[in-house]
Amino acid sequence: MNTKKTKSTKLGAKASRSDKKSRTSSTKPIAERLLQFVEAADDPPLMDRYDALMGVGRPVDDVLASYRDLFKEGAKVGLASIERSMVKEGADLKFQVSRIAIRPFADPDFSIADARKVPAKYGSAGYDGIASVRFCPVPHPDTGADMIAMDTVVLYSGNPPPSRPVRRRRSPAATDGVDHAASVTFNLNDGAAVKAALASIFYPPLAHLPIGDPFEDKDKRFAKGSKQAERALVTLMCRSQLPVKKMLIGFGAGKSIVDGVHGRLEYLLKERCKGTPALVHRDLVPHFWFGELRRLELHHLSVPEIKLR
After folding, report:
1. Mean pLDDT in order along the chain per 10 residues (309 residues)
2. The model's pTM
3. 3-state secondary structure at position 133
4. Rounded CA gap, 117 and 174, in Å?
5. Based on the structure, what is the number of domains in the chain?
6. Looking at the domain assignment, is residue 24 inside a domain?
7. Is 55 a member of any domain?
8. Which of 77, 144, 278, 301 fits a disulfide with 139 by CB distance 3.0 to 4.6 angstroms?
9. Burial of 305 (0-12, 13-18, 19+ CB in 10 A)
10. Residue 90 sits in which domain range?
11. Range list of H helices, the chain
12. How far is it, in rounded angstroms, from Cα 53 to Cα 236?
């Protein structure tokens, strides 16, 4: 019984000194724990490359979905534009998450084109909004094993006229295989809800689903022994291969919002890249990850294959 209590991760459980040390380190930001996990702290050139892939210091010469801090600035631009051009004061917004695919860490293979098809349907229906392609770790529903999910996250508004039903001579098409969560409606004046939606679109967490995510099941947890830093590593590998022009989608009035975000992020990126050479070339990001998995002997992981077309 004492052994079980020592290994317990629940708050309030008695623990040994080693467990206390582990719990203390878990209070560090996940990016810092990730760098500790990959043993980059004592290797400045390696640390610089990880910083580049996370958009810290001298980033890669492209805005990548892994630039969490940079995307916080993009979210500010998005918020101002939504308030100014997409919806009127007091109007309602809707937020919806669609799960496109889930893959094991040993075989993360995703098509960004599949994810981008979802927001296109909102635009065709007459809505205004913005969307993003998102990668997040998720536990296997039965075993709790580490998995990685690709979602489409959409923030939209409008009241388009209902479309007329189309008569089909043939049987209806099969389902698209996408798991669509119920949409959530909130007011533009609900600042907390708007900011949470934008955070989920622009800079979701590295090691787990955003709090309050519709696919988050409190009864389903990652299996015992799962490492947050390892989950963050797989998520980073996915996001660092996704450029902003493929990540963000605008439809209706949201197109100008996404254009404004792109412009701001590109400007900030150029400012950070001035006068210093690139440390990791955009086309060599997957090769960097191949080398890292070999160096770290993480043979149970695979470099994600992110198909952009």
Report:
1. 36 34 55 94 94 92 95 95 80 93 96 95 93 96 92 91 50 63 92 94 94 81 90 98 97 94 95 91 96 96 95
2. 0.86
3. strand
4. 16
5. 1
6. no
7. no
8. 144
9. middle
10. 63-162+173-296
11. 2-7, 17-25, 30-37, 44-53, 68-81, 112-125, 191-202, 228-239, 244-247, 254-273, 285-295
12. 8
